Amino acid sequence: MSWLRNYMTKYREPFLSSNNCVMVQHISDKISKEVLELYFKNERRSGSRDVLDVKAYVGGSYLVYFEDPKVVETVCSRTHRVNGQDLDVKAISKHFACQLERGEHILFKIPASVEIQNLDAKKLHFLSNSPFYRQALEKELQAVYGKPVWPEKSKSSSLTIQCTLTAEAENCQMFPRTWEAKVKETLHRFLDLLLVTKHPILPEAFRLVIDETKRLHTSNPDAVAIILERKGYVIYVTGLKEAVKELTKQVDDIIDLIYTSHRFRQAPDSTNVMSQHYVDCENCGQYSEFYCNACHQRMCGKCREEHLRNPNNAKHDVCGYKDRKMTFTFNPCKFHPTHQMVLCCKRCQIPICAICTTKYHAGHEFLDLEEVCTKNFRIRFEKIRQIRDNVLPQSRLTLLEAKDTTMKTKLNVDNLRSVMTEKAARIKEMVEAVLLESLVELQTSGVSAVMQMEKQEKEIERYITKVETVLEEGKLSMVSENSEDFLSDVKNRPFMHLNPVPSLSKATLSFFDGPLSKDVIRKQFGFVRK
């Protein structure tokens, strides 16, 4: 599928994105060059804005040049209407624009449609009925100016391709010479990505095989299909190579299992390189529907009637072919080499000959060895079918569910990792917010406390200054040795009264350390629930 994704990614419309010119046709006389230029300068209406030039040429058409080549695709994708008239706007190549400006006459003839024959009808049938791959081929052909006309008949082996090349395309005069070759090359290259396998089936087994194919499983059902050819009893598997190989193996397993269970004989078919399985009447060669367990012969309905008419065959057990006894090879007895082991000891569950019944297995019960082998063969076949149809598909579905569960688990782990990271980021933001609020609160309380302490400090400084003044005055009053002067000074200037030393107050700020532990954070953060 990678080739298709790459193609779908790289595919582009067949015009040069680097060209900065469009051609506007079918313009009436009422629309002048100036009106057209104003229209294309209106980004809201036309999708463009920076118009370099508008040039008129013969036929009432104009060439509009833009500054940015990228707007050409935008302009061409819109519908344009001026003065009630619809404009025909197309992107053209630089070469074509130069020819128009020089007034050169452009000779151009559209190539006729080409019918490509001898194609694989099964591949065409698959493409025509698969919308996804049909569109993929149409886009690849469109890149070389081709458009397929899909056949109405499912068995058609030819495909008609129409040419979509126009005069506006790059190298429009040169391209028609190689157009048919390019279209054929593109178609064959695409068809080479597909594969068809053929599975011829026995008519009597065709319905059984079809019923079993209904239980098929494939990893990419859109990339493969089964086509039934009921008249020829053939199954075709067609589609992408890898998907076809996967489904073909399952179809082969079904055919082998059904043919083994019915003991169909396989012989080479000279008209086909593949092998044709068949079971025929041993008398006339027609397809056998019955089987004589006594004679071990395949026979058709007519030979069955003739076989039972014979008195010697009247008691023969003739049954339907699918209900027949299986034919096995009888080996010589190890103890009695001249006798074949045609019996089975019920107690010992081993093959024995007739003589062994009287010697080594005397008194035991005996069964027909062919019937025992047939019974066990069908039991084994049923177990194999159950494994193939039930156990194996269920195991594959379980594996798909396991892969889906693994993918969901990985996504869940990534999601939980993102949730935890976001939760941790939110907790971090909360811690930073609390820290910021606490710092602001500390700043407010701290400034007030500092101012109070500074005020107290200044008050104490004033008290000390007052004390020092009183002390100096007291010293001066004691300098005079004259008793009269000393007493007069004591009378006139009494000793200054001092208040008690101011009391010292303390502004104590503290931080209440809240409980902080890993368990507390774990409760706030959350935990993984298994």
How do the strands and helices of this protein lay out in sequence?
Elements: H1 2-10, E1 21-25, H2 33-40, H3 43-46, E2 51-57, E3 61-66, H4 71-76, E4 80-82, E5 85-91, H5 94-102, E6 114-116, H6 121-128, H7 131-142, E7 146-149, E8 159-163, H8 175-191, E9 194-200, H9 203-213, E10 224-229, E11 234-240, H10 241-261, E12 265-268, E13 275-278, E14 290-292, E15 297-299, H11 301-309, E16 318-320, E17 343-345, E18 351-352, E19 366-368, H12 369-477, H13 483-492, H14 518-525
Antiparallel strand pairs: 1-3, 1-5, 2-3, 4-5, 6-8, 7-8, 9-11, 10-11, 12-13, 14-15, 14-16, 17-18, 17-19
Helix pairs in contact: 9-10
Observed structural traits:
530 residues, alpha+beta, Alpha-Beta Plaits, Ribosomal Protein S8, Chain: A, domain 1, 5 domains, 5-stranded antiparallel β-sheet, 19 strands, 45% helix, 16% strand, flat, disordered N terminus
Describe what this molecule looks like in 3D:
This protein has 530 residues and is an alpha+beta fold. The chain folds into 5 domains: 10-102, RRM (RNA recognition motif) domain (Alpha-Beta Plaits, 2-Layer Sandwich), CATH 3.30.70; 114-191; 194-278, Ribosomal Protein S8, Chain: A, domain 1 (2-Layer Sandwich); 290-323, no CATH class; 327-434, Classic Zinc Finger (Double Stranded RNA Binding Domain), CATH 3.30.160. The chain is 45% helix and 16% strand. The chain contains 14 helices and 19 strands. The strands form 6 sheets. The chain has a 5-stranded antiparallel β-sheet, with helices on both faces. The chain has a 3-stranded antiparallel β-sheet with strand order 6-8-7. Strand 17 and strand 18 form a beta hairpin. The protein is flat, with a radius of gyration of 52 Å. Residues 1-17 and 266-278 have low confidence and may be disordered.
